[in-house]
């Protein structure tokens, strides 16, 4: 099953380029041209990733990002915008964006970042709690046994300090 990406930008040429390169990479691409349309599509189409411009009509990308996160929606967000100063980058990330790129951009880099974000998202989604009396948490090849303060990688017990263990067994 192909993953769905929502591209949100008010510039037709940017939307056309992003749609083309992402479809060539195997993604199903939907588009929105303003912030209100973006929020509607996030809620109705459930994309696996949103590529979001900051400067949008009706509702800007920062407000869109804040609204998505306030709705407890964990869809990954890649901000792709002309706003390139440090303040804007940090603000976007602090408000819930998972990554931030500036225009002009490399099409190959956009695809690489989309793949990386979706790969991380898939790993998190695959994390599952095993239904047994230990309540083990398994993420890829890592198994965490919080009740016993043990962490295994490939079924090998890792020798960790108490401080390191606390990161895994919160």
TrEMBL record:
<dbReference type="InterPro" id="IPR001789">
    <property type="entry name" value="Sig_transdc_resp-reg_receiver"/>
</dbReference>
<dbReference type="InterPro" id="IPR011006">
    <property type="entry name" value="CheY-like_superfamily"/>
</dbReference>
<dbReference type="GO" id="GO:0000156">
    <property type="term" value="F:phosphorelay response regulator activity"/>
</dbReference>
<dbReference type="GO" id="GO:0005829">
    <property type="term" value="C:cytosol"/>
</dbReference>
<keyword id="KW-0805">Transcription regulation</keyword>
<dbReference type="Pfam" id="PF00072">
    <property type="entry name" value="Response_reg"/>
</dbReference>
<feature type="domain" description="Response regulatory">
    <location>
        <begin position="4"/>
        <end position="118"/>
    </location>
</feature>
<dbReference type="GO" id="GO:0032993">
    <property type="term" value="C:protein-DNA complex"/>
</dbReference>
<dbReference type="InterPro" id="IPR039420">
    <property type="entry name" value="WalR-like"/>
</dbReference>
<dbReference type="GO" id="GO:0000976">
    <property type="term" value="F:transcription cis-regulatory region binding"/>
</dbReference>
<keyword id="KW-0804">Transcription</keyword>
<keyword id="KW-0902">Two-component regulatory system</keyword>
<feature type="modified residue" description="4-aspartylphosphate">
    <location>
        <position position="53"/>
    </location>
</feature>
<dbReference type="GO" id="GO:0006355">
    <property type="term" value="P:regulation of DNA-templated transcription"/>
</dbReference>
<protein>
    <submittedName>
        <fullName>Alkaline phosphatase synthesis transcriptional regulatory protein</fullName>
    </submittedName>
</protein>
<keyword id="KW-0238">DNA-binding</keyword>
<keyword id="KW-0597">Phosphoprotein</keyword>
